[in-house]
Amino acid sequence: MIEALREYAEDWQSRLLDAPNHRENWGLVQLISLSDDEQLREWLVGKDR
Question: pLDDT digits over 7-48, tens only?
Fold first, then answer.
């Protein structure tokens, strides 16, 4: 899932940012871009897992 999120962030920055159904996902893209894999894992499944 982390790999898919990273790919989405790359796609969003290169071509999806102006698509109406993706435009509002800038916050998600920022979260993905600023987080390392461990932080994304914690965001996805919680810290205690």
Answer: 999 999 999 999 999 999 999 999 999 999 999 999 999 987
Task: Give me the residue spans of the domains in the chain.
Answer: 2-45
Element (H, E) at 43: helix 37-45
Q: What is the dihedral of CA 16, 18, 19, 23, to 10 degrees?
A: 90
Candidates 43, 11, 44; CA nearest to 29 is: 11
d(CA 40, CA 5): 9
**Which token pair is 7?**
């790919």
